[in-house]
Design a protein that fits this description.
The chain has 302 residues and is an alpha+beta fold. The protein is built from eight helices and 18 strands. Helices cover 21% and strands 30% of the residues. A six-stranded mixed sheet has the order 1-15-14-18-16-17, sandwiched between helices. A five-stranded mixed sheet has the order 8-7-13-10-11. Strands 3-2-6 form a three-stranded antiparallel sheet, covered by helices on one side.
Length: 302
């Protein structure tokens, strides 16, 4: 049974054929500091900043407060075509809107229809969809019926892109009161059935799954400068090999790795790649790259 699950999960990730593994960057003889700024990778948008988009099947509560402080409440289900119908407003398409967007639209319509209101509040009483964004081939909102796992949602989204970070997938849980909580999922733990809480990877209506980008950049004296996916663990020497190896002008014992920290600071280290290769040894952990790292190979002065 476990083997069947692993085979299915692997098929999810390989659902769509691989596209080119690198996006070439123009090679520039700039100094390391300038190269660092040029190849900076944009950070992934914070998970909690994503707003849930209303979908078909959602049950909404709309509270309208008039100028006298009186409240009119309506409960409405979003139809399969995404539409809702409300008194004093009529028909409109709510699917695809966030709650603040729908509140604004309703207030504008009420004013247009001479219905004086002081405030309009919308609450999602019941969710019926999940959303996936980021490094998947078809991001969007999908209907959830019964049980749905994160692997099934990725399959519906046509698989991960080449630049996806499968070790840091974020699942944001949105609650009707607006509260948010998030978990980080390591996809390979799920695939290999080694996750500590397999039930934790079942999705619930309203969840937003965010697949971040995981890439590193290499510039300077290599044959193919560019941006490359990490695809799990990637070392400096492996990246240099993927980039076609050193050029004849490379200073192989002065390879610089720059890492951008969450607080905006940068950490730099120098790797003596030639010595490591010649000795056939090295600190593998020190050679490991992190998403967003920039590797710069300077030219030799001799």
């Amino acid at each position: 049974m476990k083997n069947h699950f692993v085979m299915y999960a692997t098929a999810v990730l390989l659902y769509v054929g691989c596209s080119a593994c690198a996006c070439a960057l123009a090679e520039a003889p700039a100094a390391p500091a300038a190269a660092t700024e040029t190849a900076a990778v944009q950070p992934v948008k914070d998970a909690n900043s994503y707003e849930y988009k209303i979908g078909a099947g959602n049950i909404l509560r709309v509270d309208v407060y008039n100028g006298k402080g009186e409240k009119i409440s309506e409960i409405v289900r979003v139809a399969s075509d995404g539409g809702i119908s409300l008194p004093f407003v009529g028909d409109l398409i709510a699917a695809g809107m966030t709650v603040p967007e729908l509140q604004k639209e309703l207030k504008q319509r009420l004013v247009k229809n001479d219905f004086v209101s002081s405030n309009v509040l919308v609450f999602v009483e019941e969710f019926s969809t999940v959303t996936i964004v980021g490094e998947v081939r078809r991001s969007g909102t999908y209907a959830i019926k019964g049980r749905m796992t994160i692997l099934e949602l990725i399959a519906m989204a046509e698989g991960l892109t080449d630049f996806a970070s499968s070790d840091a997938i974020k699942v944001v849980h949105l609650h009707p009161d607006g509260a948010k909580a998030s978990d980080v999922v390591r996809l390979y733990d799920v695939m290999n059935n080694t996750a500590t809480d397999s039930e934790g990877f079942l999705l619930t209506p309203g969840d937003v799954v965010i697949v971040p980008r995981s890439v590193v950049s290499i510039m300077g004296e290599v044959n193919n400068t560019g941006i490359y996916p990490t695809r799990g663990r990637l070392t400096v020497t492996e990246l240099i090999a993927i980039a076609g190896g050193f050029s004849k002008f490379a200073s192989a014992n002065d390879v610089k790795v720059t890492h951008s920290n969450p607080d905006g600071t940068k950490t730099r280290r120098v790797i003596r790649v030639k010595d490591i290769v010649n000795k056939g040894s090295g600190d593998n952990e020190n050679l490991l790259l992190q998403p967003g790292d920039l590797v710069y190979v300077p030219a030799s002065m001799y």
